[in-house]
Write a structure and sequence with these properties.
Elements: H1 2-25, E1 30-35, H2 39-50, E2 55-58, H3 74-79, H4 81-102, H5 115-139, E3 143-145, E4 148-153, E5 156-160, E6 166-176, E7 180-182, H6 191-194, H7 198-201, E8 211-215, H8 217-228, E9 233-237, H9 247-260, E10 263-266, E11 268-275, E12 281-287, E13 293-298, E14 300-304, E15 307-309, H10 316-319, E16 343-345, H11 357-371, E17 386-388, E18 394-398, H12 401-408, E19 413-419, H13 423-427, E20 436-442, E21 449-455, H14 459-470, H15 476-481
Parallel strand pairs: 1-2, 1-6, 2-3, 6-16, 8-9, 8-14, 9-10
Antiparallel strand pairs: 4-5, 5-6, 7-15, 11-12, 12-13, 17-18, 18-21, 19-20, 20-21
Length: 511
Amino acid sequence: MAALCRVRHRWKRTNCLRILTRNLTGKYDYDLVVIGGGSGGLACSKEAAQLGQKVAVLDYVEPSVKGTKWGIGGTCVNVGCIPKKLMHQAALLGAAVKDAKKYGWQISGPICHDWATMAEAVQNHVRSLNWGHRVQLQDKKVKYLNIKGSLVDEHTVKGLTKSGKETILTAKNIVIATGGRPKYPTNIPGAMEHGITSDDLFWLKKSPGKTMCCCSDVALECAGFLTGIGLDTTVMVRSIALRGFDQQMAGLVTDYMERYGTKFAWKCVPKRVDKLSSGAFQVSWTDLQTGNELKDTYDSVLWAVGRAPETKTLGLDKLGVQLNNETGKIIVGADESTSVPNIYAFGDISEGRPELTPTAVKAGKLLARRLVGQSIELMNYDNVPTTVFTPLEYGCVGLSEEEAEKRHGNDGIEVYHAFYKPLEFTVAERDASQCYIKVICKRGRDQKILGLHFTGPNAGEVIQGFAMSFQCGATYSHLLKTVGIHPTCAEELIKLNITKRSGLDATVTGC
């Protein structure tokens, strides 16, 4: 024990000496240290290294409450966008098989889905991405350290390994890009003990079976693909679905999901989760409209009630890094700077920023360029496109109709819209009642486009192209001057001519 204490004291003296030397000489181990190996942190570190900086990136994943763990790449790669889109694709293929019969494919026997096969394939792909990220860091000469980082001062980071070994790194600049993790509802007995989150779902070896999902856009996406692969799935919604999105579009998304087979418990709040002797989970909830207490049994309970920023273990309070007390997120300036010089933060961990991978990636690259003096360009967080990968996909860019009306007044906007039927739905005899397009314009001569919303197949692919036009000041007349690609769903956007104000039937007829 005495020997161990001597080693610890020697370690402290050595590292204190390093910090003192750095303070006196201005020399650092690195030009930049990035804490967080998600999409944004990796993009920032690689960009800085390519611009000649000496860079280290620290990444350490704490296992989920259920013990799930994964490799480098952050939420998007491991437990977010990538596995979610692949499982969404699995569900779409199931629907396509049903359509195939109408197109002449002879399919005999019942069609069923095997979770284990899908999960193994998805997880193997994710692992290949983990490996790819590590190779890229090595190729770009970024030092990757699988240690948990915290701040000592504005130029010093302490790293802690899984075994408890500490490492001190000094840097001219420090970037925090640790993102967030799913929250559990702490006021519901049994929620954490018996529930899972998106941190666990994509790494399950066995099918989740009959599932209750509560209660965000992530819950809708997960419920959509779970229904699509044949599982009995219910979504519990306290108030509204897709909060923050255009509510007319949100209604179309959930209407389609209900027709598609997903069950909804509207205006309900969960009360408790109990494990039965059979191994199933009994969920009890209250119907807010009637006051009735209801219950049902499920094989899995998926909580999607928001995310919490990973800030608690960073030592930010000791340095005086300013946080939003309600959200726990870091308050940053337009240049991603925090309240402490030389410390920057971006991505999901920053207050007021979209919790989207592409914005973090772009913000990280731009920050790296500014830190080396190559650019002064700031991240533009306006008109960021996004897509919700529900069974009927919903893509949008710009303002919702509610927000546009709030900013410009009802008489200050013009809404062009149409209900259309994708050609793919015709032979398959699919219901297209919720396939809808809406373009919100500012009234006046130019009719600048304020928001664009689309539900239908491949919504993300459609919106990505139109999003660029927002950077160029797109107007309604620009839409009308654009030649469509026929036959596509996207071409319906450039044919819009009926306004909501007119009250005319907006159903597209003909081709």
